[in-house]
Amino acid sequence: MKPIKNSQSLILIGMPCSGKSTIGRLLAEKMQLEFVDTDQRIESYVNQKLQAFLDSKGYMALRAVEETILVNETFHNKIVATGGSAVYTHSGMMNLKSNALVVFLDLPENQLTKRMTNFSQRGIARKPNQSFSSLFKERRELYLRYMDIHVDCSGLSVDQLLAKLVGICKKELT
Length: 174
What we know:
alpha/beta, Rossmann fold, globular, five-stranded parallel beta sheet
């Protein structure tokens, strides 16, 4: 774990349904920082919901827009919840890492599967007909590659996870 100089930012990465947006909003409020959800930034950029964009343009087009957002924005003094596919863009992840501490919110596949009720309509950038299990295995390797801090969320309540992340912010961010 390395301290980030000149930034108060924390970037949350992880699978869909790992709690990035939910916990990110709460953490931003607690730390009195702005909250950014990159999926919402993408939707604003393309002027439509992720699933509608995926249906009309395909998953590679969504990843290209995501890369544009991640590379061209600065995320200083913010809590940022990324889309689960952010880790497919090396340049985007390097921009995020240059601005902030990257925290991987990790949950086992079986817990994510229980939370995921709308896999095919959720706006997830994935290959056509790719299973959740295949996507999990593919992405987990990338999350581990790009993270600065690994947080095992298994068995943690929202309050427990929030307390853990507040502790990380207080310890690691200067």
